[in-house]
Design brief:
This protein is α/β, with parallel strands linked by helices. The chain has 3 domains: 3-25 and 242-377, 3-Layer(bba) Sandwich (FAD/NAD(P)-binding domain); 33-129, Alpha-helical ferredoxin (Fumarate Reductase Iron-sulfur Protein, Chain B, domain 2); 144-239 and 380-440, 3-Layer(bba) Sandwich (FAD/NAD(P)-binding domain). Helices cover 34% and strands 16% of the residues. Strands 3-2-1-4-17 form a 5-stranded parallel beta sheet, with helices on both faces. The chain has a 5-stranded parallel beta sheet with strand order 6-13-7-8-9. A 3-stranded antiparallel beta sheet has the order 10-11-12, with no helix packed on it. A hairpin with a 5-residue loop joins strand 11 and strand 12. The longest helix is centred in the C-terminal third of the chain and has 21 residues, at 420-440. The protein is globular. The N and C termini lie far apart (66 Å).
Amino acid sequence: MDARALKEGVVSGRLDADALSAGFADLHAPLGDHEALVAADRCYFCHDAPCITACPTDIDIPLFIRQIATGTPEAAAKTILTQNIMGGMCARVCPTETLCEEVCVREAAEGEPVQIGRLQRYATDTLMAQGVHPFSRAASTGKRIAVVGAGPAGLACAHRLAMNGHDVVVFDARPKAGGLNEYGIAAYKSTKDFAAREVDWLLQIGGIEIRNNTALGRDVTMSNLTSDFDAVFLGMGLGGVNALHAPGADKDGVLDAVDFIADLRQATDLSRLPVGRDVVVIGGGMTAVDAAVQSKLLGALNVTIVYRRGRDRMNASVWEQDLAAAKGVRIITNASPVAVHGNGAVREIDFEFTDDELKPTGQTFRLAADQVFKAIGQTLTGEDLPDLDGRKIAVTGPGRTSVNGVWAGGDCAAGGDDLTVTAVAEGRDAAEDIHNALMRA
C-alpha cells in the first residue's frame, strides 16, 4: 500500500489516481452482445416463473430474456420499463441475489442462477443509448399533481401520472433530482453519472416539472400543496439520521454515513476526499457496507463494521457482506458502542458485546478510530404530515394516507423494505390509484 495511505488522521490523497480509478470502476462490467445471448440462453422460460413473483415490480422476466435471446433487446427493455421505469438503475443496485435470482430454477438446480440483473441492464442500456423513450402521454386530463421527492418513488409516480395525461410538479430539497440513486448509492454501483442520465431520459415523457432546492416545510407546506393541486404524493424519503446514544458521540470525526456517501457521489476528484486511517462504521445495512467499502477504496488502512445484532440479522445481504470482506473490511457483530474517546476529535471507541436479546454481557473492547460513520437508520422529518405508523407515514392499499387526496410511498411510508425497486413499485401503484381516483371525481 502507498505510504500515504498509512498516514494517521483524516486526510485526502491516500491513493494515487490509478488506484482510485480501479477501485471505483463499475462493480459488474456490462454484458456484450454475445455474452448477453449466452446468458439469456440459460433461461428455462418457466411458465409459472418464480422470478416474477420475487420481483417487487412484477417484471415478466422470462419474456424479456426471451426477447434478448431473439435479438430484440429494445423490446426487452420496454417489457422491463413498462413495470419498472427505473429498470436501468435497479439492474445495477437491486439485491437480485436475494430476490429474482435467489428463486431462479437454475439456482436451485445448479447453484448458478440466470444473470437476470445483468441481462436487465443490457436491455435497458441498449434502449437508453439510442436516446429513445418508448412511452408517450395520453390526452391531457387537466389535472395537476404535486409529488414531494425526486427519488425512485417520486419519479416513478410522476412518470406514470404523466403517461396518464396529468401534469406533475416534483418538489425536491436537493440541488439535483434522483434521491438516493443520485446521493445514496455506492459510486462503484452507479458510474458515469448514470443516475442523472436516467432522470433526464425519464423526463422525456413530458408533463413533469422538477423544482429543486424546494423542501417541504421550509419552502412549501402541505396546506399549499393540497389547496393548489388535485392530488399529492409524498415520496421524500427519510431526511433525518438516528442519533448515536453514547458519551462522546459529538466529537469531531463522528459523522453520518449518508453524508459521507453523498459527498463521495458528488465529488469530481476522489483524491481530494478526506478519509481516516482507522475507520469504524456502526450499523448493519446497505449504507454501512457502502460507507465501509468506499472508505477502504479511498485508502483507509483499517475499516471495521460493528453491528449490534448477529450477522444473520444484518439488513445487508450475504453477498454484500462478502463483498465487504473481500475488500478488506472486518465485520464484528453482537456489539454496541458505549463511549467515544478523544481530545476534541475521535481517537478510539469502546464497544460492549451483547447477547441475542441485545443485553450487555459486560465484555468490552476498544477500537482505534479517527473517523466513525453512523449508519444506524434514518428518520422521517416534516410537519403537518398524515398520520404515522410508528415513525413512518401510515398507508393503506396503494399508498393512501389518512388525508384525503394525499398518497405516500417509498422509504417515508410504512410497510416497505427500503429498496429502490420497492420504492419504484409503490410510486407506480400510487400513481395508478391517483389516476383512477381523479377520473372518478
